[in-house]
Queue: 4 jobs
Job 1
Amino acid sequence: MSADNGMGYYNHSESVFWEDTKPGWYEATVNIKHYFDVIDWLETNIGKYERHTRWHVFTDTIKLKFRYQRDCMMFLLRWS
C-alpha cells in the first residue's frame, strides 16, 4: 500500500475526520510549497514513517500527526 494516495493524504485507519485520526498524537501544521520534499524528509528521518505519521495537505499547509514527540520536534525544527 502506498503511503501517498496521490491526493496528499495518508491515513492508515481511513478515518473520515482528521480530528478522529490518532487522537493524542503530536500535531504540527506548517506552510509548505514543496509537498514531496516534506514527504521525502519524513521517509528519510522518521523510522517506519508510514506507521508513525499521518498527514493531510490543504491548499498551502500540511497537517501532520506524529506518534512520538521527538519526531514532531525534529519536523518543526526543520520545517517551521
Note: The two ends are 29 Å apart (CA to CA).
Job 2
Amino acid sequence: MRKVTLICGDNRINTTCEGVSQHVYNRLVVHGISKAGRAWYDALPEGHPPVMVYTATNAERLDCLSSDPLP
C-alpha cells in the first residue's frame, strides 16, 4: 500500500492506495484507493476545485480514481 494525500480546496485526507500511475501529462490516476478515500472523494460537492494528489515522490492533479490494477 502507498500513502497519498488528496487535497481539494480546504478539504484534505491522508489515505492509502495500491499505487498511482500517470496516463495524462501533469495528471495522476490513483489505483485501488481505500474506502475512506473513496468516501471523501464522493462527498465532494459538484463543481469542486481540482483535486491534488501528493505522494512521497510526486504532486500532480488527479485525473481519476480507478479500481483497475496498476498498468
Note: Strands lie at 2-8, 11-17, 19-24, 27-31, 52-54, 59-66.
Job 3
Amino acid sequence: MKSLSRNSSAYPVTAQAADDHAVCLIGWEGPRPAAWGDNHGVWPVRIVVTKKEMTAADRADLETPHVRVVVLEYVMVETKAHADRLRSALDEVLLGHSEEKMNMPLKHRWRNVRGCFDEGDETSRQIWWGLVLEEAQRLLRTQRRVGERIDTYDADEAYRRLSARAAKGRV
C-alpha cells in the first residue's frame, strides 16, 4: 500500500476531512501536595477528546498557574461518537481506580490517580493505561451496546490510515 508524505497536497485535505479523534489522558506532570502539610498529595488527570492530541492539554495548562498540565497518554479512534463513548467509560473507570486507592475526590471531571501506578515510571503508567483502556472496553461491552468494542490505535497507525486514504484519492 502506497503512503503519502504529510507534505503532499492530498494528505492535509484527507486529514481535514477525516473524523479521527484522540481520547487523551491529560494531567499534572506529577503528584503535588493538596494542602500545606499533606503527605499523600494528589495527581489530577482527566479524559479529553480532541482532533489534535498534542494540543489536548493546552487549555488546562493555561488555566493552571503553578503546575504544568500535559498529555500523559492517548489513543486514536475513528469517530467523535466513538471518542465520546470511550471518554465516558474511561471516566467511570478512573473514578473507580481513584476510589479504590481512597484518594481525595477532585472537582468536575478531574480524577485523582495518586498511587494507581509507580510514579516517575513511564512504563508503569503505560501498563496501567492499557489496563484502564481494557476495563473501559469491557464496560462498553456490558452497557447499552452489547458486544461493542471501539477500535483504538496510535498516532503512527492514524498516519498510515490517512496516508493510505489520501493515496487512493479518498477523502
Note: Strands lie at 21-28, 44-50, 69-77, 111-112.
Job 4
Amino acid sequence: MPDARNLLGWLLVGVVGAVGAGAAILGVSQAPGSATLSQAITNTLRAPNYEEVFTESMPEGSETGYLTYQAPDRLGGYIESAGRRTYVYIVGDTQYQSVTVGRGASTAHLVFYRQHSLEPVSAVDPVQYYLRFEHLARRFSARGTTYTVTITRSGQTGILGYQVSGQYIGRVVIEAPQQASSVVVTISQVGTAPPTGLPPGARVVGAVPALPGTTTSPS
C-alpha cells in the first residue's frame, strides 16, 4: 500500500505549528453549489464507495496507484512504478498482494499471496489517511473551491491543499518543494464506484514469502 509518511510526518509537524500563524481563516463562505471544506471532508469519509488515483513523487522515483474503496472494509486495485504493476486488495483483515507483472500483463491468472493486514482499511486507504489531516490546521487560504495552508518549519516549506468538487473532496495535494516531493490524490465516482475484488481467475497461494532474516504474518 502507498506510504509517503516520511514526507507527511515532516509536513504535519509543521501543520500543527501553523495553526494561528496568519493564514486566512476558513469561515462559512463557499462557492455556490459546493460544500464547505469540512462538510466535503465529512461527506467523502462517509461515502459508501469511490475511486481514487494517487501519485507519489520523490527524488528516488514515483509511483501511481489506481484504487477503489468500498465501505466499510474493502480496498483494491494496483500500484504502478517503472512500467510494472502490483495488484493489492484488502478485504476485512486480510490482504492479498499479487506477484509484480508488466503493465500489459493479463490479470486472468494472477497469483496472489495472502496475509493478515496489520492495519484497518481506514488507516491504509490514501483518501481517508490524508483527509484526516484537516483537523490539524483550522486556518486555510481559500480561493474558490481550493483551500491551502503553507507551512514553514526549520527553513523548509510545505503546502497542504484540498479541492472541493460539489459535495465531496475531489483532490488532495501535499507538496514539499525543497525536498522535490509531492503526493496528489484525485477522487472520483463517489457513491457510484463499481465493487472491488480479486480479478476473475486469480489464484491465492498462501502467505507472502519471507525475505532472508524476516518473518511473515500468519495467513
Note: Residues 5-18 form the longest helix (14 residues).
